[in-house]
Amino acid sequence: MIPVCGLPICVRSRQELCNVSTLGLPLVMVRIVVFNSKAFSMQHVRAPRRWCKRLGSLVLLAAALQAGVAQAKITSLSRLFVLGDSLSDSGNSGVLTGGSFTPPPYVQNRYSNGPVAVEQLWQLFNPGDVTFKPSLSGGTNFAVGGSTSGQENDVGLYSPIFVDLGMASQLTAYAAASPAFDPSTSLFYVSAFPNDVFYFLNSGMSAGTYTGANGTPTTLDDVPVLAAANIRGTVETLIAAGAKHLLVANSPDLSKVPFFLGTPGAPDIARISQDYNTLLATAMAAVASANPQVDIVLYPLDQTINAFIANPASFGFDNVTQACFNNVSVCSDPSRYLFWDAVHPTTRAHGLIAQGYYNSVPGPLPVFGALSALGWSRRLRQRLGATHS
Question: What pLDDT score does 76 carry?
Answer without folding.
Answer: 87
